[in-house]
Backbone:
């Protein structure tokens, strides 16, 4: 399923990222990045902020539609610009270097470490807690398991692109089995007439406009990852065909599965049971498949592992491209001479993830990170509109109707703006931390005010690190 050959057999011995991701691994990469801990945790967050079954299901469907609109916009951008890097590259090409750097800065400083640590902790909980039920599992052991899971995936992604890609396919199969294990009993129960939980589905008593964006944040978090393939454009075989096709297949699949999973949840468990549960999938299985209840935590843990693998595989490509554009230290644009992996960029994310794992308020950091993530996604699709206006003749192998990026951009900015009202502390802090990248940009990139001694020391450390890691600059252009 992974093509081991390069585009030019004559360059096999030269150092560059290979085009080794065909259609099936591309679909598994997107779906695997999307289906993680979110669908097993987020239903509670969506329901708390909507207050009714019908509105919750509507939010899940709208989140799928909104994510599909965004994914189609990224499909156009991915076929218009041949570079990897996703958000960073598209902002650089459409709105300029400062927005691109701020996206890079926020991703490295808190978005990716927080998201990865969150999923890693979910992985640790689902692996460890079954051994201690009904007693609470010790938190240090959970964090140690999370640490080992992240370390394993970092090692795999440093070792081989093909191995990481194959593992994503295998973990996707496990995830789909976990979802089917929920959907089939739930749909069967619904067909047998268990509709009592859907009575008065659209009650509006507890609906609040202030809470609505938080419901969308929970739902969109579960869908997040639809942009994962755009991080590795330079490694996709026939990107003009496979990127739009993989994105379209993935979005239809995931949206359908997510809505069916939530219908299954509400068919079997009541609203009160859902709100009391910290692991909705386990609560569901204990009622319909009690013999399988011990298997579900393992399936969810594997699902989390796949989502982490998608992030650890993709985001370092953003650092790789930024270093190539001279907006990040050059060492991170280097590739291992034998493994052909961007090892320095992969390793760079690990320390901040480990620091996040040591924190106690990691779950609060997800809301903190979501504001900045969706602000920049809205800016990317705004950049698509600007680029279309400025360069109408730019070749676009795949082009979405103008209404799609326009609607997506307006809705994203509306959700982001309303969240400033709903959760001013977390969103305000997120904006403030993002803006700290402005002085960094002007002091170190736009104008170099770094003392010469510091530069010499940094260059020396970079050379020693290059020797230690056995990495060099890419020898063959891949875009």
Residues:
């Amino acid at each position: 399923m992974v093509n081991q050959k390069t585009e030019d057999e004559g360059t096999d011995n030269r150092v560059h990222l290979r085009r080794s991701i065909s259609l099936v691994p591309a679909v598994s990469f997107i779906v695997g990045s999307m289906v993680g801990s979110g669908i097993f945790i987020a239903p509670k967050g969506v329901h708390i902020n909507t207050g009714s079954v019908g509105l919750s299901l509507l939010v899940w469907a709208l989140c799928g539609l909104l994510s599909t609109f965004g994914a189609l916009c990224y499909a156009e951008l991915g076929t218009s610009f041949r570079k990897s890097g996703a958000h960073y590259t598209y902002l650089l090409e459409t709105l300029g270097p400062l927005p691109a750097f701020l996206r890079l800065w926020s991703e490295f400083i808190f978005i990716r470490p927080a998201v990865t640590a969150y999923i890693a902790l979910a992985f640790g909980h689902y692996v460890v807690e079954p051994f201690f039920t009904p007693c609470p599992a010790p938190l240090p052991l959970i964090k140690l398991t999370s640490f080992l899971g992240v370390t394993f995936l970092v090692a795999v992604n440093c070792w081989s692109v093909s191995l990481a890609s194959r593992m994503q396919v295998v973990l996707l199969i496990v995830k789909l089995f976990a979802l089917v294990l929920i959907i089939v009993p739930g749909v069967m129960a619904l067909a047998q007439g268990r509709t009592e939980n859907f009575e008065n589905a659209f009650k509006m008593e507890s609906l609040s406009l202030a809470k609505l964006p938080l419901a969308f944040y929970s739902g969109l978090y579960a869908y997040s990852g639809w942009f994962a393939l755009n991080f590795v454009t330079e490694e996709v075989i026939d990107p003009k065909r496979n990127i739009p096709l993989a994105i379209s297949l993935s979005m239809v699949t995931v949206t359908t599965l997510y809505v069916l999973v939530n219908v299954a949840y509400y068919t079997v468990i009541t609203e009160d049971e859902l709100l009391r549960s910290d692991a909705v999938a386990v609560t569901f299985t204990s009622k319909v498949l009690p013999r399988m209840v011990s298997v579900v935590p393992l399936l969810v843990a594997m699902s989390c592992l796949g989502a982490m693998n998608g992030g650890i595989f993709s985001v370092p490509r953003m650092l790789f491209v930024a270093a190539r554009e001279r907006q990040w230290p050059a060492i991170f644009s280097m590739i291992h001479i034998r493994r052909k992996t961007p090892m320095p960029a992969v390793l760079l994310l690990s320390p901040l993830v480990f620091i996040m794992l040591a924190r106690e308020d990691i779950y609060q950091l997800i809301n903190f990170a979501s504001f900045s993530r969706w602000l920049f996604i809205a800016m990317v699709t705004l950049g698509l509109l600007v680029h279309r206006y400025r360069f109408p003749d730019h070749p676009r192998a795949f082009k979405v109707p103008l209404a799609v990026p326009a609607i997506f951009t307006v809705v994203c900015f509306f959700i982001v703006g309303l969240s400033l009202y709903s959760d001013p502390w977390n969103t305000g802090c997120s904006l403030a931390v993002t803006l700290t990248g402005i002085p960094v940009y002007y002091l170190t990139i736009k104008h170099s005010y770094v003392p010469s001694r510091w530069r010499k020391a940094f260059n020396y450390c970079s050379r020693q690190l290059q020797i230690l890691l056995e990495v060099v600059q890419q020898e063959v252009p891949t875009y």
